[in-house]
Amino acid sequence: MKKNLSIEIYFKPEMYLPLPVCIEQIEQILNIQRDYMHKSQDWYLCASSKKKSSIYKLFDKEGVTKIGLEKLSIEYQKDRGNYFSEAIWDKETEEASLLYILSNESTEQQKRFKIHIKLNFDLLLSEMQVEPIQNFINALAKLFNDAYIMVNGKYAIELSVFPDRLSAGWMLYLPQAELTHETVPESFNVISVTHQDKVTGSLVVTTPHFFDEENIDDIKKVNRVDIRLRDLGILPLYADM
User: Could you report the per-residue pLDDT of 54-76, keeping only the tens digit for each?
Assistant: First the structure.
């Protein structure tokens, strides 16, 4: 039986990123997922149909392709300085996809730029072991150490205690938070993430097994962790992402 692993990354760059930086971030993520998760080398541009989504290879083991750079440049220029979005997938296995969104939500009073990256993997339940997944998230957190990273945190809204906030889901990386298991005793584990010998945040793991959103006991476990994180004042609102 296959289950979906959904990973969402949220952070706020100080500027509207140039295209080469966006491409570099995507390449870095693809390299990390090859090391820890999914071994695919080739990623294709998502389109309106499966057939159309099998035409343009945007990334391979060497990085962005020539046609990939062309397609990404066209998309980047469409709404220059305000919004850039691109989705890619592994057409060979049909088991992985990546969505990258850069947006400018600045006002006259405040500069505000946002990045939202979503990864999806369809994996056998036997492959959903806590250690390799947490190692993967740990590697992403080292790359994006000022980001919030949520793993399988979106489930039935009526089962969430704080539907307007991120959820611990299976795992949640909280930047700048220095937590321990004693701080969040409802969790399965809390891991300090370090970069250049400095603690940059904490990865909260709610369960020792794949978080099943259809399992009421798992939901209750996540709810308790969410309440604890909210009480600590470190469970952010989606509106602030």
Answer: 999 999 999 999 999 999 999 99
